[in-house]
Backbone:
């Protein structure tokens, strides 16, 4: 009986996620209300809050689920970084940007960024925690492997390097959102930033 209840909960949670994803993609994050999501999922608003604490947390959870799609490719990059440190780091950064770029489209991301800039509170905190797990931690692993391999300085401050690259990726991603730059522009910009930052990190 417990197994059946857990299965029912998973199905309902997935129904909520699918309804929210459709609405966010069609209307945008800010224009979609909890009432809209509950109605599309065929549940009441109180039931919605039994599964999700807020619309912001739901958005973060949706993004986290989507990021799971690239885990295998990410792990391959971490396990076997390319011989050229510039290419090894660029591969991971570009994978993260491409996944974010493809997720629900620019309009949803513009809503997310605007909400965060206005002071999203728990929303921003949730995105920060997710970013630490899906971006900062994998990048730290790549940098540590490059240090162990002798490509980067043995005294490299990994945390500082991760923070630098994270800021650079966010800057490029935001520029791409605002100006709708084509993918070749993104690739070129990221590789330029990686090369410049690497100048002070190489062994």
Residues:
């Amino acid at each position: 009986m417990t197994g059946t209840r857990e299965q029912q909960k998973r199905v309902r949670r997935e129904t909520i996620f699918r309804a929210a994803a459709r609405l966010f993609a069609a209307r945008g994050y800010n224009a979609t209300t909890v009432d809209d999501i509950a109605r599309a999922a065929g549940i009441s608003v109180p039931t919605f809050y039994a599964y999700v604490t807020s619309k912001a947390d739901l958005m973060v959870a949706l993004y986290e689920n989507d990021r799971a799609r690239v885990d295998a490719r990410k792990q391959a990059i971490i396990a076997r970084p390319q011989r050229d440190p510039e290419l090894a780091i660029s591969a991971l950064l570009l994978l993260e940007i491409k996944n974010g770029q493809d997720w629900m489209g620019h309009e949803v991301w513009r809503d997310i960024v605007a909400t965060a800039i206005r002071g999203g509170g728990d929303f921003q905190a949730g995105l920060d925690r997710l970013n630490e797990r899906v971006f900062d931690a994998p990048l730290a692993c790549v940098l540590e492997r490059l240090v162990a391999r002798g490509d980067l300085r043995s005294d490299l401050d990994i945390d500082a390097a991760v923070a630098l690259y994270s800021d650079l990726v966010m800057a490029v991603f935001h520029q791409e959102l605002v100006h709708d730059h084509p993918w070749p522009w993104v690739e070129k910009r990221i590789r330029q930033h990686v090369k410049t930052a690497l100048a002070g990190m190489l062994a």
Observations:
- The chain has a mean pLDDT of 86.
- Residues 122-148 form the longest helix (27 residues).
- Residues 62-198 form a domain with the Tetracycline Repressor; domain 2 fold (CATH 1.10.357).
